[in-house]
Amino acid sequence: MKTIDDLSKDGLAGKRVFVRADLNVPLEGATITDDGRIRAVAPTIAKLADAGAKVIVASHLGRPAGAPDERYSLAPVATRLGELLGKDVAFATDTVGDSAKATVAALGDGEVTLLENLRFNAGETSKDEAERAAFADQLAALADLYVGDGFGAVHRKHASVYDLPAKLPHAAGDLIATEVGVLRKLTDDVRRPYAVVLGGAKVSDKLGVIDHLLEKADRILIGGGMVFTFLKAQGHEIGTSLVQEDQLPAVREYLTRAEERGVEFVLPVDVLVAPAFPDLAAKAATHPETVAADAMPAGKMGLDIGPETRKLYASKLADAATVFWNGPMGVFEHPDYADGTRAVAQALLDSSAFSVVGGGDSAAAVRILGFDENAFGHISTGGGASLEYLEGKTLPGLAALED
Ligand SMILES: Nc1ncnc2c1ncn2[C@@H]1O[C@H](COP(=O)(O)OP(=O)(O)O)[C@@H](O)[C@H]1O
Ligand SMILES: O=C(OP(=O)(O)O)[C@H](O)COP(=O)(O)O
């Protein structure tokens, strides 16, 4: 992959450089609860601006339905990015419309703009190649050069990630270079025992990764919303918990294959349940019940791993030499369901393992719960992206930067 240094051989002064970042940060209303992804890409933006480029930053936020939706506006991110860069960041209220065109046209050398959420446009995520290409053409018209630095989104075959770089001279940004450098170590020569902890809510995206992990990992620990598809596959009651019904046969096969291959597959022995998903804004006490994982009551939702599971998982991580962790163990955004995630983070710090924590929410959880991010081996800005990288898959957003 070309680097920014390669791209800047003829100078960057006055050039319009499009930076595809992943600024998909957690928000409560318009308040950013963790700015890790903004801080991670800010040095790339500063480097380009310092070289005199006119920097056009673009990202998605959340999963809006291809049309403007104020809840997913990047406006709060523009303000925070400006604070981190120590300069104004002009915010365009659309992505390729009049506001974007006028904002880009008004940019001076060394100035920075942030476009509104790419996913407010159906073309960004479309499966229709022509629709994606048409949107990429509109984005390309705004810029002279392209820098891909949104590591968290490189597994998405989206217009700004995959189609746009083919239309402009392009390079990988410094964040992508760092991320790939660290993750390569986990694919090339991993120190064993190698434990992988999987949780979170993007269950359909991430269950498939287990297929590959069964060939690589020595131990796989399951938490978060992942748990209940496994419990159901084993024939247990899961109440109203998150479940991926269409994956039940696949999950049964994983459990069988883990046994055959001698991979230790660890599921929770107890879980915290409540009648409903908690109100994350109010954070009022919800008085969860601890129940055995094989005896969940009907009508209740599993929201965190329980106290016995916390101890069990800590013991399974204590002697690992390498740990990769993606996905919180529970709904950590509410204090009643943060203990599982806290326990896994603490277990990684207590062990001497090289630990990689990947994912927007996992990385945010570690920081929000008060852990020192520098105490971990690597905090990756990508969850799905790092998992697919470890799987050895061709990632569209990395392939597009190679030539
Ligand atoms: N048992 C559960 N039920 C529903 N959601 C859960 C559960 N456990 C964790 N979550 C949610 O998972 C989300 C993070 O999942 P995900 O996006 O897959 O992780 P990451 O961003 O680290 O890749 C968090 O917002 C958390 O509240
Ligand atoms: O948050 C992200 O991924 P992650 O939750 O796997 O870390 C990325 O911004 C990608 O978002 P998407 O999963 O909506 O494509």
From TrEMBL:
Reaction(s) catalysed (UniProt annotation): (2R)-3-phosphoglycerate + ATP = (2R)-3-phospho-glyceroyl phosphate + ADP
Example GO BP: glycolytic process
Entry keyword Metal-binding: no
Pathway: Carbohydrate degradation; glycolysis; pyruvate from D-glyceraldehyde 3-phosphate: step 2/5
A GO cellular component entry from the record: cytosol
Annotated positions binding (2R)-3-phosphoglycerate: 37, 119, 156
UniProt subunit comment: Monomer.
Descriptive protein name: Phosphoglycerate kinase
Species of the source: Streptomyces buecherae
Phylogenetic lineage: Bacteria, Bacillati, Actinomycetota, Actinomycetes, Kitasatosporales
